[in-house]
Amino acid sequence: MKNIYVDHAATTPVHPEVIEAMIPYMNEVYGNPSSIHTFGRKARRGLDEAREVLARALGCQYEEITFTSGGTEADNLAVIGYAMANRENGNHLITTQVEHHGVLHAFEFLEKNGFDVTYLPVNADGIVSVKDVENALTENTILVSIMYANNETGAVQPIQEIGAFLSEHQAVFHSDAVQAFGIERLDMNELNVDMLTVSSHKINGPKGVGVLAAKKELTIQPNLYGGEQERKRRAGTENIPGIIGLKKAVELMETTRNEKRALYKSLRETLLSRLQEADVNMLVNGSHEQVMPHILNVSFPGVNVESLLTNLDLDGVAASSGSACTAGSIEPSHVLAAMFEDSNRSQSALRFSFGYGNDLEQIEEVAKRTIKIVQRLQT
Asked: What is the CATH number of the domain that holds 298?
């Protein structure tokens, strides 16, 4: 029996070409990029080239890229860093109930430190209302943070429209685009965002590398104190091998994006069709139109998700109940809880997410194994 990995929304395998690109920066170009000698200058050159590639990929300027240890740190730097540095302009912040915990917990921290936070609801498709964002704005609002695409359901938010009207307000607009990176074309100017977060390990790059793209005129309080790396926004010696890996992953991403979108859409449609044809009792969670092509979230009423995941794993299928950050937790998904009043919906929800290495034959097999297990557990 061949194991099949369909949990790419949690993390992705590192592409062989990414690994190959990283190796010289671990055994040859090992200097500190802040050093002025030859070893340091070679490392600095690699860092500078990576920053240029990321700036082009995100539609921003070279000096607006800050490398971090991952998406969570980048989210924290954007949310906490901007709010704390600009408190004199207001203490009201806006986000949604369905954000990644890297954002939600940052706002909870700010609430404990005297900020007023509005957590906007979403509809049954997991999408926030543009009107609700407008209505929540006050003259004291200094920051709005809304994710581009949800990591559990794949629901895509109306970022461009929200950014358009926020351009007339003092509030700075941040979007966590970790789950969209590599599949959607991201351009900060076109999206009307001031800050954008992405992560390496979601696009077949190494873990431990993220990026906050933030307009250079923004004042952001650093979360780390030490040296003056990353234009004083993020202290600490840069992870050069990881950043080089991210650079290579982005270059590969740029040449395969359209091909991947088409493939993932076909895989999603195939799996959904096979489940529907088998007439298993199921409910699709999230929008049918405004959705990332690589994510399918389905509830199987009457089935305990932990039992389902265990049986799938024993049968060689690696899927997920939602966010990897809460793996092992028996608490229901905060995303599905915000979308539906029925708590049973989240207790039987399964997320399939597609990526590098998946093909149609694999997904047909995933469908067969899932149907067999669900039918057994629902009887």
From this structure: 3.90.1150.10
Q: Is 156 helix (H, G, I), strand (E, B) or coil?
A: strand
Reduced to 3 states (helix: H, G, I; strand: E, B; else coil), residue 90 is coil
Say how far apart CA 269 and CA 257 lie, in whole Å.
Answer: 18
pLDDT tens-digit map of 101-119: 999 999 999 999 999 999 9
Residues 291 and 346 in one domain: yes
Phi, psi of 64 (to 5 degrees): -95, 0
| Whether residue 325 lies in the annotated active site | yes
Active-site annotation holder among 23, 36, 124, 325 = 325
Cα separation of the two ends of the chain: 25
Same domain for 242 and 285? no
> Which helix (H) or strand (E) segment is 51 a member of?
helix 38-58
**Orientation angle between helical segments 240-277 and 360-378, nearest 10 degrees:** 60
Do 50 and 179 reside in the same domain of the chain?
A: yes
Helix, strand or coil, per DSSP, at residue 70? coil
DSSP letter, residue 258: H
Q: What is the DSSP track for 297-317?
A: EEE-TT--HHHHHHHHHHTTE
Q: Are residues 172 and 29 in the same domain?
A: yes
Whether residue 333 sits in one domain with residue 186: no
pLDDT of 126-169, one tens digit each? Answer: 999 999 999 999 999 999 999 999 999 999 999 999 999 999 99
Tokens of 111: 């609430």
Q: Which of 251, 268, 292 is at the close of a domain?
A: 251
Sign of CA dihedral 180, 8, 102, 58: negative
pTM, 2 dp: 0.95
Helix (H) or strand (E) holding 244, with range, is helix 240-277
Asked whether the beta carbons of 66 and 77 are under 8 A apart, the reply is yes
158 and 294 co-located in one domain: no
Domain coverage including residue 305: 4-12+256-378
Of 233, 251, 269, which residue constitutes the final position of a domain?
Answer: 251
